[in-house]
Design brief:
The complex is a heterodimer of chains A (385) and B (230). Helix content of chain A is 57%, strand content 17%. By secondary structure, chain A is an alpha+beta fold. Chain A folds into 2 domains: 173 residues, no CATH class; 175 residues, no CATH class. In chain A, strands 1, 3, 4, 5, 6, 7, 8, 9, 11 and 12 form a 10-stranded mixed β-sheet that branches. A two-stranded antiparallel ribbon of chain A has the order 2-10. In chain A, a hairpin with a 4-residue loop joins β7 and β8. In chain A, α2 crosses α13 and α13 packs antiparallel against α14. Chain B is of the alpha/beta class. Chain B has a single domain, classed as 3-Layer(aba) Sandwich (Rossmann fold), CATH 3.40.50.300. In chain B, α4 packs across α5. The chains are: A alpha+beta (385), B alpha/beta (230). The interface between A and B is medium-sized, with 21 and 28 residues.
Chain lengths: 385, 230
């Protein structure tokens, strides 16, 4: 108790220095937390993926399509419960700055495959009834102020032309890992228009989303599907939804690695600043530590004084950093919702913040403690006066 | 009257320091005893070795050779940890610059050495109050060092030195940073501790007036005793 009281008093002996150090740690923890959240946002699709869903695409590349006829053959494969075909549409709303993901889907099997996408039944029915209908996530609708029945026009890039859609539903995510910024419309609409304008591109599917009967047979089912189409004109590559998402992240792995590296560099820099503060503090108090030793206090007590002070300063900074991370992440997420539809501060990020602050506090105390414990009492006392 | 027994026995103590590649001898083959209840003043010019001798007696520095027996225990044979535990029980320190902990009140500073004892909180409080009362500062318990005069700070330091009832009190220039009036008060207080409580005091001083309060004055020069007077 006495030790704790003494440590707290020491913490605020040089108020300006302490608060400046706390400020530095706050900013470092805030930056660390935001960068870790960016990384989490990058992996949000992976986090949201299900173990009982597979993705089948053209074995050469995702940019090549598969014949629609594959759908029925996949459905007949042992272990397959449900199949939903789809295409990445790549349409642009207003201009390129207003980017959001848009897909052509088969509504019935799609919603059966994705129970985490919550759409009111009457809106789902209205969407299925209307060939030109679309549904969009809550955040996207809020961003553009769309209302049910509104017509929204997308300019096709992969599928040229102006495409008019009528809003029939607004979906919400079952949990916060679900992207609420996506635009879904009927694949039949896309296919019919293709038949008229580019018949050679009709009846082509970009990918099949597959639900398996049990997660533990997913790899067997994937192998069966790929075997089915071996040596065909369009061989398939089937993988778990998680692996599929990871393959997208792998394309930008260098950026993710760079962000990870920067997040740790921030911690190393503040660790050096904190170590310098503690070294200065311990140097100033070397006479006091000598007095403690002269009175009979052991090295452990001196170390506890220094480590205690160091940890308290870093934990105060950590607390402020965490407190500021949430509003900062909200603002960051709003500003970059186009790139990061899901931008939530994960509990793991908070645990990492606390661990980082603990490491900062501990490492910063090592050298001053070692030096203070080793100093001869007579030498320490000579520093006073 | 029977002669008091020796509480401190110093035998053939030598000490030197290394300054770069040079070895500088500070104390050479010192041998003497200090009787229980003695008030000894160690005098001498700067660099004569008096503070080094005091540090050796207090167990905060180590000898090159020789032995120092305090209460029959050879402290030169103790490990760092044992020496720290021994100091906590047996030595009270009074420094020139008081060396109080600035973030602790007078009460907290005096309580500090008692934290290493098995006393309960209540017992510690009683001891601290008694010690501060004995130095006339019972009304300044809640004051921080910067709220006290130099003389008052030194009295707190004396209370801290005596609160554990140590075997010896070592004082290094206890009046060196005080004005004449405060210095006289401190010397009077030390004299009272010696006479009334029978404390053995070993004091290093440059001040002849301070030394006059001691029963015995030993003069050191270049690491050897050159004169002893009562």
């Amino acid at each position: 108790m006495f030790l704790l009281r003494l440590v707290f008093r020491n913490v605020f002996r040089h108020k300006l220095r302490t608060w400046l150090t706390v400020l530095g740690i706050t900013i470092a923890i805030l930056a660390f937390g935001l960068l870790r959240t960016v990384i989490s946002a990058w992996y949000a699709g992976v986090e949201a993926s299900s173990a009982s869903r597979l993705v089948t695409r053209n074995a050469i590349s995702i940019i090549f399509t598969l014949p629609l006829s594959y759908e029925e053959r996949i459905r007949q494969t042992e272990g397959v419960r449900i199949v939903s075909g789809g295409n990445w549409f790549g349409g642009i709303y207003i201009d390129e700055k207003h980017f959001f993901a848009n897909f052509a889907i088969e509504p019935k099997p799609f919603f059966a495959l994705y129970p985490e996408i919550i759409l009111p039944p009457e809106q789902e029915a209205a969407f299925i009834r209307d060939r030109k209908g679309f549904v969009a996530g809550r955040k996207l609708v809020e961003k553009y102020g769309w209302k049910l029945g509104d017509t929204v026009t997308l300019r096709g890039t992969i599928f040229p032309g102006q495409w008019d859609f009528v809003m029939r539903g607004i979906y919400k995510g079952r949990d916060k890992n679900v992207d609420e910024t996506t635009f879904y419309f009927q694949w039949d609409y896309l296919n019919e228009k293709m038949k008229k304008t580019y018949p050679q591109r009709a009846d082509q599917i970009g990918f099949f989303m597959i639900g398996v009967t049990r997660p533990d047979i997913a790899s067997d089912v994937a192998a069966r599907i790929d075997n089915e189409f071996r040596n065909s004109i369009a061989e398939t590559l089937t993988e778990t939804e998680k692996a599929f998402q990871m393959s997208w992240i792998a394309m930008s792995q260098a950026i993710v690695t760079a962000i990870q590296l920067v997040s740790f560099v921030v911690i190393v820099i503040i660790m050096a600043v904190m170590a310098n503060t503690m070294a200065m503090t311990a140097r100033e108090r070397i006479g006091e530590y000598a007095i403690f030793k002269a009175l009979g206090f052991g090295g452990g007590y001196i170390a506890a004084l220094i480590f205690g002070e160091s940890l308290i300063i870093s934990m105060i900074g950590c607390a402020f950093g965490i407190a500021f991370t949430f509003p900062a992440a909200r603002a960051f997420g709003d500003a970059l919702s186009t790139f990061f539809p899901i931008f939530n501060v994960a509990p793991e990020t908070i645990y990492m913040d606390i661990a980082a602050a603990a490491v900062i506090g501990t490492v910063a105390g090592v050298f001053p403690s070692w030096r203070s414990i080793r100093i001869r009492i007579a030498d320490g006392l000579r520093r006073i006066g | 009257m029977a002669e008091a027994r020796s509480i401190v026995e110093i035998r053939n103590v030598s000490k030197s320091y290394r300054r770069g590649s040079q070895i500088v001898p500070v104390l050479e083959n010192i041998t003497f005893d200090i009787a229980e209840g003695e008030f000894l003043a160690l005098m001498g010019p700067s660099g004569s070795g008096k503070s080094t001798l005091l540090n050796l007696l207090a167990g905060i520095d180590s000898v090159d050779s020789g032995s120092i027996l305090i209460g029959g225990l050879d402290i030169t044979t103790l490990s760092e940890t044992d020496l720290a535990a021994w100091r906590a029980v047996n030595v009270g320190f009074i420094f020139q610059f008081y060396n109080l902990i600035p973030v602790l009140t007078a009460f907290g500073n005096v309580e500090l050495p008692l934290l290493l004892t098995r006393l309960s909180r209540k017992e510690r409080h009683e001891h601290v109050e008694m010690a501060l009362r004995s130095v006339g500062l019972s009304d300044r318990m809640d004051h921080y060092p910067n709220q006290l005069s130099g003389g008052q700070q030194q009295r707190v330091a004396i209370a801290r030195a005596v609160v554990t009832d140590p075997v010896i009190l070592v004082a290094d220039e206890p009046t060196g940073d005080l004005d004449r009036v405060s210095a006289a008060e401190i010397l009077e207080l030390m004299s009272r501790l010696n006479k009334e409580l029978g404390k053995t005091i070993i004091m290093v001083t440059h001040d002849a007036r301070a030394a006059e309060k001691a029963h015995l004055i030993k003069q050191l020069d270049k690491g050897v005793f050159i004169n002893v007077s009562s």
